[in-house]
Amino acid sequence: MTIGTNVVRRKENFVEITKSYYQLTKPRIIPLLLITTAAAMWMASGGRVDPLKLLVTLVGGTLAAACAQTLNCIYDRDIDYDMLRTRARPIPSGRVQPRHALIFAIILAILSFSLLTAFVNLLSAILAMSGIGFYMLVYTHLLKRHTTQNIVIGGAAGAIPPLVGWAAVTGDLNWAAWVLFAIIFLWTPPHFWALALMIKDDYAQANVPMLPVVEGEEATGRQIWIYTLLVVPCTLLLVYPLGVAGVLYACIAVVLGGIFIRKAWQLKQAPFDKDIARSLFKYSILYLMLLCTGMVVDSLPMSDRVATVAAENLHSLLSLISS
Ligand code: HEM
Ligand SMILES: CC(C)=CCC/C(C)=C/CC/C(C)=C/COP(=O)(O)OP(=O)(O)O
């Protein structure tokens, strides 16, 4: 074997290892977590967010979320092996040793805590660490394998990122921050149960008591419907009584919420239809993304003018979106 071949092999190995550690962090979920953090920062600062603080908070948040996901991959390696969707993950497929993953997770946590403490504030750092703790201890360890309410209570972990964002700007948490928390908290059941309806058999095979496995499709459809009916009015609390968002955000929240409710209703009527479940799951992601974008746009100084134009064209906007 030539020296050249050795160098190429080593390079390929390095790329493979890097890819495996990247996959441990479940990177596809992190951008939306960051969008909720950024939206909270924008709202908390009244549209005048410090770009450097935004960047550092998002990097700190990314490191914390990556740590949480890596720890989850270590803890859940047995059930990840049992499920088709997760079998190829780095630990069940044998590409990363659990103890190496643990070292990686510890490094991520230390980096996140240090960065947030040094350049943002202690409260945001503590909140990020509590997100990791809650996700691991409450969701992954205590609830995931034991109750159908796992993602309802455990979902609180995913609702912590906007608290991190709010705390990063103001140094404390007020009612608006807790409403942002409540929005993600109530959004999680429709988001996840729609997916769980699609991959129910996988969860059944791994003995994970997700709602569709234990109580069936109809009960899940009803629960999704209830949480969707709760989340939409909750998004409007930011407008009234809190007054931290304006007319433009209200219009966006009503339109997006109306579509969310319509899709949840369709699923309630046909809970066995996997296409409708898929459509709701995908929409849940788009919904949160656009709602957060709405919060950002609304907080910008020119939003009053945009609100007037939007109100004038609301009717054509509605027919465009629903077509
Ligand atoms: C306990 C709460 C939650 C559970 C159990 C859950 C579960 C899941 C699962 C199992 C997937 C499929 C992932 C895959 O196969 O790769 C998924 C996808 C996704 N989740 Fe969640 N989720 C939760 C909360 C959240 C939160 C809070 C966010 C962000 C705010 C989020 C954002 C996403 C996104 C963006 C995807 C799509 C990833 C892709 O493009 O494949 N999830 N979720
Ligand atoms: C501030 C901070 C760091 C908060 C933590 C936020 C966080 C990591 C939320 C993750 C939510 C999520 C995608 C859960 C899926 O877990 P699962 O184990 O059910 O998914 P799986 O079946 O794909 O393994």
TrEMBL record:
Reactions the enzyme catalyzes: heme b + (2E,6E)-farnesyl diphosphate + H2O = Fe(II)-heme o + diphosphate
Molecular-function GO term, any one: protoheme IX farnesyltransferase activity
Keyword field: Cell membrane, Heme biosynthesis, Membrane, Transferase, Transmembrane, Transmembrane helix
Short name of any one Pfam family annotated for the protein: UbiA
Membrane topology of this protein: Multi-pass membrane protein
InterPro entries: Protohaem_IX_farnesylTrfase (IPR006369), UbiA_prenyltransferase (IPR000537), UbiA_prenylTrfase_CS (IPR030470), UbiA_sf (IPR044878)
The enzyme's E.C. designation: 2.5.1.141
Entry's transmembrane regions: 29-48, 54-75, 96-116, 151-169, 175-199, 247-265, 285-303
Cellular compartment(s): Cell membrane
Pathway: Porphyrin-containing compound metabolism; heme O biosynthesis; heme O from protoheme: step 1/1
Gene Ontology biological-process annotations: heme O biosynthetic process
Keyword tRNA processing among UniProt keywords: no
NCBIfam families: cyoE_ctaB, PRK04375.1-2
Note: Carbon 2 of the heme B porphyrin ring is defined according to the Fischer nomenclature.
Protein name: Protoheme IX farnesyltransferase
Gene (UniProt): ctaB
